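Support reply, case 0932

Customer input (verbatim):
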Amino acid sequence: MDQPVESFASRTMQYIPRLRRYARALTGDISAADDLVQDVLERALLKQSLWREGTDLRAWLFTVMHNIFINQVRSAAANRLVPIDDVAADAFADTPPLQASDRLEIRDLDAALQALPEEQRAVVLLIGLEQMTYEEAARVLEVPIGTVMSRLSRGRERLRRLLQGLPESNPLKVVK
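Our regenerated output:
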């Protein structure tokens, strides 16, 4: 019995850096991200019987994270944001120091990402940051692939407009 638990735990451990990166981008807060990762690891170990051997463990862990995060958002437990400048020092400790212009671009990108609706932000981060396929993102978010594609398209367009300082696109008009 101990061997499968250790095996599952050791396989899970390899995804901690990716989980932390996604959690930080998703929450915008170092402490909340670390708490989210801890919650994911705890839930994964407790519910490991729900994971099927031979399926994508990474996608399963990201699904667990997404569901926990949604529950936290719904209960308003994750409202405090920390600028990504504070995250950069810890998350990228092994990279060269950022130039002032790089820090400004990262701050602007973080602000734009946080301005996206949660559904669009999650898709943009899973595909852009975590480099998941549309199929993997659809499984993580438990939505059809077409929904992933439309959310990604709208999210990218909104990010582009926010980063360029353009006004929001015109909302659809109700036709009578």
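We compared this against your earlier run and they match. Two observations from our side: Residues 1-82 form a domain with the Rna Polymerase Sigma Factor; Chain: A fold (CATH 1.10.1740.10). The first helix runs from residue 2 to 13. Please reopen the case if you see a mismatch on your end.
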